[in-house]
Structure formats: C-alpha cells, structure tokens
Amino acid sequence: MSNTKETLVEEFGHSLEDEGNVCLQPQTEPMNPEEVIQNLETRIKELEDSNLRTYADFENTKKRLEREKTQSLEYAYEKIAKDLLPVIDALEMALKSVDDSEITDEIKVKFKEGLSFTLENFLKTLERYGITQIPAEGEFNPQLHECILQAPSEQHQEGEIVQTLQKGYQYKERVLRAALVSVCKH
C-alpha cells in the first residue's frame, strides 16, 4: 500500500491516512474531490490502455515467432537440398558421357541402366521432400529461369525458351537454383 500512497502523493499532491479510509489532506492547494476522482479515472484509463497495448504487442510477437518457427521447420531441408544439386548434375553428365566412352556396347548399356536407375531414385526421393525440377519449356519466367543466351528460332515465338542449359530446382515454393536457359529473340 505504501507504493500506492507515494504514487498518489506524487501525482495528486495529497497524502493518505488510514489505509482503509482514504482521507485527502491538501498539501498546497485544496483539490475538489470530483477533480481527484476525475484524475484517478483518467489515470485508470491510461493504465488500461497501456495494458491493452502491451498485451496486443505480446500477442503479435507471439504470432510472429510462431510463424517464423513454422516456416523455419517447413524449409529445414533447403540448405542440404542446395548442396545436393551438384550431385544430380554429376549423375546427369555421367549418363551423357557414357555414349562417348570407349567401352563395349554391352557395358555401356548396363552402365547407363545403373546410372539412370540411381538418378531416377535420387530424384524421386528428393521429390518426396518437396524438391522438384523447374519446368523449362514455354514462356520465360524471370522468377524461375535465368536467361543466359538469346537465339533466333523458327519453331519458337519471341520470349519462349529454346533450350535448357542447366536444370533448375525448387524446394516447395522457393527457388533453389533457377533454370539456365536460352530464349528466342527474332
């Protein structure tokens, strides 16, 4: 109760006597009891408003942290997914290079089958975790594709993708690596 007494004395210039009964003793000028009540009601409204704002700030912070936590958990595999993209590229290049090698046709076929099977299973596993290849056909999309070359083409309209130079991948809605493409320009 002493903190309340000190606060009232500071704010309203009055002292309190009898903890049960509030008696106003003027220290400087006498204050009308209605003024004291009005001042107290104003102070109560200010404190209620302050309390409400603090509670709202707390709730907003709580919601923001929950959203960040959910998003953080949702995209937890993003870094490892980016690190696996060169492995996919290496498997695809190995698959293409089998035809240029000087091994027998029988070994080429078996080697290609093994690489194809490995690459296919690897891509299926990544897809289960939300990592998918970005389609690189049709209209150029600067959010998904990166234009490296512009080339004329009779088979394509201007602004359409002519060739994919490097496949792009996305993790859920985020682009891990944009597809590197050449775009038709007449």
What does the radius of gyration come to?
A: 36 Å
Please state the structural category: alpha+beta
Q: How do the strands of the widest beta sheet line up side by side?
A: 3-6-7
Total strand segments: 8
For the sheet with most strands, the description reads:
3 strands, antiparallel
Assembly state = single chain
Q: Return the string of H and E elements.
A: HEEHHHEEEEEE
- Terminal CA distance reads 86 Å
Low-pLDDT parts are 14-24
Question: What is the molecular shape?
Answer: elongated
Which percent bin holds the helix content?
Answer: 40-55%
The number of helical runs is 4
Q: pLDDT average, as an integer?
A: 85
Proportion of residues in extended strands: 15-25%
Describe the 3D structure.
The chain has 186 residues and is an alpha+beta fold. It has 4 helices and 8 strands. A hairpin with a 2-residue loop joins β6 and β7. Mean pLDDT is 85; it is low at 14-24.
